[in-house]
Amino acid sequence: MIDNAVVHHLESDESGTIREVRYLDPAGKEHRLSARRVVLAANGIETPKLMQMSVNAHTPDGVGNQNDMVGRHLMDHPGTGVSFLADETLWAGRGPQEMTSIITWRDGDFRSEYSSKKLHLSNMARTQQMTTEVLSETPLRLGAELQAQIDNRASRFVQFDSFHELLPEPSNRITPSKKRDALGLPRPEFRYAIDDYVKRSAVHTREQYARIAQLMGGTDIAFRDEFSNNQHICGTTLMGDNPKQSVVDRDCRVHGHDNLFVASSGCMPTVGSVNCTLTIAALSLRIADQLEQEM
Ligand SMILES: Cc1cc2nc3c(=O)[nH]c(=O)nc-3n(C[C@H](O)[C@H](O)[C@H](O)COP(=O)(O)OP(=O)(O)OC[C@H]3O[C@@H](n4cnc5c(N)ncnc54)[C@H](O)[C@@H]3O)c2cc1C
Questions:
Q1: Catalytic residue (one of 8, 73, 232, 257)
Q2: What digits encode the pLDDT tens for the residues 225-243?
Q3: Second label for 171, Cα 20 to 30 Å away, from 16, 67, 85, 88?
Q4: 6-72+234-294 has which fold?
Q5: E-assigned strands of the chain?
Q6: pLDDT tens-digit profile of 21-43?
Q7: Cα within 13 Å of Cα(17), Cβ side
Q8: Mutate-to-test residue for ligand 1 from 231, 265, 287, highest number of ligand atoms within 8 A of CB
Q9: CB atoms within 10 A of CB 68
């Protein structure tokens, strides 16, 4: 383990074998490493950026990018939300576990019209948020009255979020930017659009939010219709049998580079409607099995 090492180049030979990994230390000094096998695990954003940055005479468009597929099909789970005060005390925030999610809409005939999704019930303690809210109001409440208001709102506050499935769209892409970071390396640049398939689903999600709020006797209902990201980066090093349409094979080995693997949610060709990290773990175990067999 070498900490604070920022890998910025993979040097490939004419056969596609990765011969060298180059990294910068915090002072900007370059170091070089070689290995029989190389596994990229720098997240679904940095990994495709690094692959596209790794240009030489043998890889003029970057490592694994001979078919212009690296960084494409960027997916996340665009999310909307709702919050309200329930008609009874619930006290979200007891313990670290999430309480529940609604996965009823992870699949069904509706998917021919709008995307699948998960609805997620937040389990955050709202004491601080409600204290700030009550103190911002006039007339100013203090003492027992302040305490009563905080208790009343924090105990009844409910928030749902959603994870909508975004389809793999080639034009949604991560590329190295002309803008530079502190080490002088390209920052990632995004092209990312949310299509009507998701927007139609969000309309249905809003109806479900309203229904849930009604069932829980909700008041002070606030919808959050603007899409937010959910940090589940998929598709950017997409898995497939056909090298013309994908970046890695079923063992997460990069097409055209026999000793290079990618361990990332970027390998997922679709994003589904639930969090991706357990799938990253499963894919990483698959790579480990493969490495064990080969070495
Ligand atoms: C706020 C938040 C909440 C989340 N909640 C959930 C959840 O509840 N459930 C779930 O399934 N997922 C969740 N996720 C997503 C989850 O964190 C990611 O899917 C997961 O961490 C991705 O794992 P990874 O190993 O691919 O990348 P990372 O965990 O991002 O690890 C990549 C590593 O590579 C390093 N790195 C990057 N570039 C370079 C470079 N050039 N050189 C050297 N090192 C480099 C980074 O420093 C980092 O340590 C959440 C994410 C966020 C941000």
A1: 232
A2: 999 999 999 999 999 999 9
A3: 16
A4: FAD/NAD(P)-binding domain (3.50.50)
A5: 6-12, 18-24, 30-33, 38-40, 79-85, 101-102, 117-121, 157-164, 173-180, 186-191, 219-228, 260-262
A6: 999 999 999 999 999 999 999 99
A7: 6
A8: 231
A9: 13
pTM of the model: 0.94
Q: Which two tokens stand for residue 109?
A: 């005939």
- On the question of pLDDT at 99 being above 80, the answer is no
Ligand 1 pocket list (CB less than 6 A): 5-7, 41-43, 46, 50, 231-232, 264-265, 275-277, 280
> Has 77 been annotated as catalytic?
no
How many whole angstroms from 13 Cα to the centroid of ligand 1?
30
End-to-end CA distance of the chain: 20
What mean pLDDT comes out for the span 158-180?
Answer: 98
Mean pLDDT within 33-58: 97
Please tell me the predicted confidence (pLDDT) of residue 95: 79
Helix pair 127-135, 143-156: axis angle to 10 deg? 130
Domain ranges of the chain: 6-72+234-294, 79-169+192-228
Nearest CA to ligand 1 atom 16: 277
- What span, in angstroms and rounded, lies between the C-alpha atoms of 183 and 210? 48
H-state helical runs in the chain: 43-53, 127-135, 143-156, 196-215, 277-294
